[in-house]
Amino acid sequence: MKLLSLLTSALAGLAVGLASPAALAQSPYPSRPVRLILPTPAGGPSDTAARALAQALTGSLGQPVVIENKPGAGGSLAAQALLAAPPDGYTLLWGLASMAGIPLLQKSPPFKSLSEFAPVSLVGHFGFTLFTHPDVPAANVAELAAYAKAHPDKLSYATGTLGEYMAAAQFIKATGVRMLRVPYKGGAQLMPDLLSGRVQVNFGPTSSGLQHARAGKLRMLATMLPEPSAVAPEVPTLAAAGVSTGTLPTWQAVFAPAGTPREITQRLSAAIAQAVKTPALRTQFDQQSLQPVGSTPQALAEVVVADTQAWQTFVRDYEIPQE
Questions:
Q1: What's the pTM?
Q2: How far apart (Å, rounded) are the C-alpha atoms in residues 296 and 301?
Q3: What would the mean pLDDT of 286-307 be, rounded to a whole number?
Q4: The CATH fold of domain 34-126+250-318
Q5: 3, 27, 219, 277: which could join 31 in a potential S-S bond, CB 3.0 to 4.6 Å?
C-alpha cells in the first residue's frame, strides 16, 4: 500500500510538471510585469507622457508597466531592444513618428520600416513650437528670419529627435536662412544648452519649453499647429506668421514585436483607448501638449504607411544626407 501510494504521488507530480508549460501558456495576459521601452531620456515630454500612460495601464492590466529608457541614435537603440524581444506582449516600444525616418537617414538602420513591428495603438499627437533664447534679437518669426539671413550660420539650432530635425529643415528651406545643427539624444539634454544660450533655436514639443518661456528664459515665436495651441493661445501659428512648411508627423504610439498574438495587441489597444479617455490622464496629457487619440492596431498601421511616405518625400525633396 505504501509503495502504491508513493507511485501514485510520483505520477501525479509528473502530470503536474508536464501540464505546467501548457498551463502557463494559457495564463491570461498579462501575468507578469510589462516593459515599455522609450527612445528618449528620462525627464522629457515623451517620457512624462509615457509614464502617465504606464501608470494608467498598470491599473487596468493588473500588472506593473515598467518604463525603460534607451535613448540614442534617433530611436535605433530602443528599436533594437524591441527587435531582440520575444513576441509575447511583455516588451513594448513607445514609438515616435520621427522613427519612421530612421531607415532613410541612417546608413545601418536596425529595421527597414516601422511596419516590421506589430502596431498596438496611436497614443496621441504632440504640438511643436519654435523656441529661441532671449539673447536672439528677434521678437517674432519675421525678425528671426531677417536676423538669420543677415548672419548666416551664426545661430545654432538644437534637435533632440529626427522630428525636430524635420521641423527645423522645413523652416530653413521655407525662409532661406542658414543655421547650424547641434544634435542631442533628447529634449532633457538639449534644454540646458538652450537655456544657457549655447544653442539658440529649437523646434520642439511645446511642453518642453513652455514653463521656461513663461518664466522669461525662452521665447515662443510660433507653434507648428493648424490652430493656436490651447496651452499658449497667444502664440501665433507658423502659417499665421507667414511661413508655410510641409507635413510634420508628431505622433506617439505603442508597438510590439512582430509576431505578437493578435489577441494581445487588441487587449493592449483597448486598454490604451480606455486609458486616454480618463479625465486624469487627459489632464496629464494636456500639461504635455499631447492631444490624446487611442486607436486600433489597423489605424496605427495606416498612419505608419502614410508617414513613412512623408519621410521619403522629405528626405528626397530636402536632399537630407544619411548619417
A1: 0.81
A2: 9
A3: 92
A4: D-Maltodextrin-Binding Protein; domain 2 (3.40.190)
A5: 27
